[in-house]
Amino acid sequence: MMRRMTRGNILGNVFGALAAPLLVLIVAVTSSTARAGDLSEPKAAAKTFLTAMINHDLATMRSASIGSEDDWKRAEALADVVAAQKKFLDAAKAKYGDDPKVPRSDQAAQLQEKLEGTEVKTEGDEASLLDPKNPQANPMKLKKSGPDWKLDLSSMRPRASGGAAASGAGEPEQLRKMTGILNEMGDEIAAGQYPTFTDAQTAMQQKLMAALAPGVGANPRGGATSAPASQPSR
Fold it and tell me: The pTM is what?
């Protein structure tokens, strides 16, 4: 039986597929102690790659990773999403600084604790970064190339619940759409288009739905079903 596609499960699939690599990315940036270009051991190599991603340093990302051209295009597109996400959050913090819904820097402590708890499992020339608190999570993997450890880009492919490949979420085309929306939202927030952060969140959800799942939520007469301007927090 085909599952009914709704606003919730479409957005959940998209963001769920990207959550793990993005979370590891933020962790690496907020708590990285590896020196620049350090590929001497698996965790340091992962930090090198992910720090380069947050800084949109594509050359270092290339040198610190291995994978197919398709996997590289996905990683490059993900770096664009992260840069756009930073623009969106910076604009939100500047505009809605006192709104408790805007993500705060105190999350860094939780992320750092998560990274410190990551375990490295090495088998010959391959290694995995495992979260002992979430053993079902798709691990980030690395491979040894000569004297260096490099991130295996195939391990960053999005996964749905249960480890199966996600249906399209995280592919370069969809990532580029997300990048465009996040950049657009950052500009619109800075221009004062949204009175509250809740308004901005609602607008971003609507833009994402229109771009990533066109037609979902449309009413039978052909008109789009719009979300309310604001929704109470749960």
Answer: 0.70
Query: Vertex 86, ends 97 and 106: CA angle to 5°?
Result: 55
In the 3-class helix/strand/coil scheme, how is 164-207 assigned residue by residue?
A: CECCCCCCHHHHHHHHHHHHHHHHHHHCCCCCCHHHHHHHHHHH
Type of residue found at 166: A
Question: Are 53 and 72 spatial neighbours (Cβ–Cβ below 8 Å)?
Answer: no
Q: Given CA atoms 73, 209, 22, 53 in this order, what sign does their dihedral have?
A: positive
What are 95-152's pLDDT values in tens digits? 998 888 887 654 444 544 666 677 999 999 999 988 888 888 888 899 999 999 999 9
Which residue, among 174, 227, 233, has the nearest Cα to 203 in the 3D structure? 227
Written as one string, the DSSP assignment of 66-130 is: E--HHHHHHHHHHHHHHHHHHHHHHHHHHHSTT-TTS--TTHHHHHHHHHHT-EEEEETTEEEEE
Q: Are the beta carbons of 117 and 30 closer than 8 angstroms? A: no
Q: Are strands 65-66 and 148-152 parallel, antiparallel or unpaired?
A: parallel
Higher per-residue confidence, 206 vs 159: 206
pLDDT in tens, 137-162: 888 899 999 999 999 999 888 765 55
